[in-house]
Amino acid sequence: PVDRSPEIQEARLKLPVLAEEQVIMEAVRENECVVLCGETGSGKTTQVPQFLYEAGYARAGGIIGVTEPRRVAAVSMSHRVAKEMNLSTGVVSYQIRYEGNVTKDTKIKFMTDGVLLKEIQKDFLLQKYSVIIIDEAHERSVYTDILIGLLSRIVPLRNKKGLPMKLLIMSATLRVEDFTENKRLFRIPPPVIKVEARQFPVTVHFNKRTPMEDYTGEAFRKTCKIHRMLPPGGILVFLTGQAEVHSTCWRLRKAFPYRPNKQHTDPRKAKRKKTVSLPRIDLDNYSAQPVDEGDEDRQAGIDDDDDGSDLELGDHPEETGQADPSIPLYVLPLYSLLSSEQQAKVFRPPPPGARLCVVATNVAETSLTIPGIKYVVDCGRVKKRFYDKVTGVSSFKVTWTSQASANQRAGRAGRTEPGHCYRIYSSAVFSDFSPFSEAEITRRPVDDLVLQMKDLNIDKVVNFPFPTTPSAEALVSAEQLLISLGALEEPPRQGRARLSCPITPLGRAMAAFPVAPRYAKMLALGRQQDCMPYVITVVATMTVREIFEELDRPVSNEEERSRLAERKAGAAQRRRLWAGQGQSLLLGDLMVMLGAVGACEFAGCTPEFCEKNSLRYKAMLEIRRLRGQLTNAVNAVCSDAGVCVDGKMVPPTETQVVCLRQIVLAGLGDHLARRIQAEELLDPKWRNGYKTPLLDEPVFIHPSSVLHKTLPDFVVYQEVMETTKMYMRGVCVCVYW
Ligand code: ADP
Ligand code: MG
């Protein structure tokens, strides 16, 4: 029996999903797989695991597993459910890529979908679990799709073996045909249960004109207007990324200052921040490569550790209006990479007398329900990473969202009473939106997935029951890359038919590392010349986006300009220093990364050191965690490797640098670029450009690279990203002896 507090019990009774408990549990009892659809906020994520628990699904030692595509949701939902059930976090726990609080008593486990995929590699039958809930299936994240495909086979297998297991797929939209009407996936279509949410009407207001550029400015003005003119009720603003969220929060706080009681700040907090120790990582629980989750944040320019109480932020150039402290606004940011404590603030009631205003990226669209929202301001856009299917060139683009997403956003306003949604675009623009967002699997390279699947002995990846199959092009180029990395064998040809390529022992070793195959290859080779700690560091650094502070931001006054110029000069100088001389300079940007991490760790990885050296503190912390995790993974794969995370890493020797470069080339071999010679200059714009096998246009070395002035004849690069030009990132010299 669960002992809930009266307040919790009362709140639960208001949730629409509670009325369906019987229906849901009966369907689960009678079917292997059930699909549950219900509006965001209807109580699926917090209540359904409790139903299963109370029906005894965790009784015989089995765990109720819940997967979430976002780390944010896994953490905050596990806390919420533990609290509702009055159970400790040792019983209702979570596991995300780097951290978790799972114990041997865990009965309900929230995790990211990548974590569960990794567990399937260890135990295909997932014997620990009695039920798996795939939550937020409508988001169509790559790992969610794959998990559904795998579980469609695992569940019948378990039941055949007399080890019963259930699968529940939960979605916030009714668009579930990809799961239910896909005969390859489920021969007998699973029953679909719809939860009628008590949704209040939301009046949608379109702008007459659509601002093409300054939509954040328009969102700011609209929010100010709502706050000045309209009755009480929380405001939720949808923007596309962390930088926009922060600058808008800043402007709103400035316009409607709210002064918190400073005495509430805990003086110990400041101290705690500085002493970060290497986390202990449970080897059974590390996840596959992280989902693109948070990508929209990673390209951020501004990255402060704003805790919402610090209002002394100095002069802001854009400030024009008069600050009005008579109507305080309690402004909170919300995005994926925000710490869990910061995120938790949105669930608490705002201070008395102040209106709540949450400025969010699309994390607030479906995974988190913020209480008390009456007004939604929707910019209609979303930031996504796009990949060119052939060349692999990627870029972040802000595009229009889909109609389904815009409607989800509007729906956030009608949870507790009738609400209003202000779309800062016209109805004509809306009618041009695509009806639904595409499944992620159709939009990104799949080399990591193909390797993971081969490691699960899924031979013919094309025949896998994907809810949506990736394009043939993407599958072919993934196989080609894996063959060239030595992870798959070149298939024998039989007539004209291409047989499937079997995985090699190297491929198996690579699949054990939680990074993309290129980097896994580097780790697999890293044992030569005692290079492993360096390879681990380089790989960790390459997989964490943007370790340097963005110094190319727009400035508005002379003073700021000169301060920024000074910082830039300082940063360039330090990069040259970190790059070293001779052999190490040939490692180029990768040596700079290695030097930066080494110097930062030597100084104890403090926020002060990062600030002084224009490094992103959060990125450095993430690298530190990843180094710990990769070190464990390497030790697990080759038990005699005996590597440990060396806090104070000494710089590599000349021989080690040479070896390191060869290892890097082995992973990036197909990312070769040749400098365009004078006689080939067809266009003056091609000056200092490089030719690559796949692209017609030239690519360039970014001015911030240490190799920008050297311009070596041959280089390899980590990736090409299109911003103002096609720029190579992570450039390293490639010399033929
Ligand atoms: P769904 O999964 O259907 O979108 P949830 O189970 O996430 O719905 O949410 C149900 C209710 O629980 C919502 O009204 C939400 O506001 C509330 N809730 C969720 N998390 C918390 C939390 N950490 N604190 C307070 N209320 C919460
Ligand atoms: Mg949910």
UniProtKB/TrEMBL annotation:
Record keywords, A-Z: ATP-binding, Helicase, Hydrolase, Nucleotide-binding
Reactions this protein catalyses: ATP + H2O = ADP + phosphate + H(+)
Compositionally biased tracts (Acidic residues): 292-312
Listed EC numbers: 3.6.4.13
GO molecular function: ATP binding; hydrolase activity; RNA binding; RNA helicase activity
Domain Helicase ATP-binding: 25-192
GO biological process, one term: maturation of SSU-rRNA from tricistronic rRNA transcript (SSU-rRNA, 5.8S rRNA, LSU-rRNA)
UniProt family annotation: Belongs to the DEAD box helicase family. DEAH subfamily.
The protein's name: Activating signal cointegrator 1 complex subunit 3
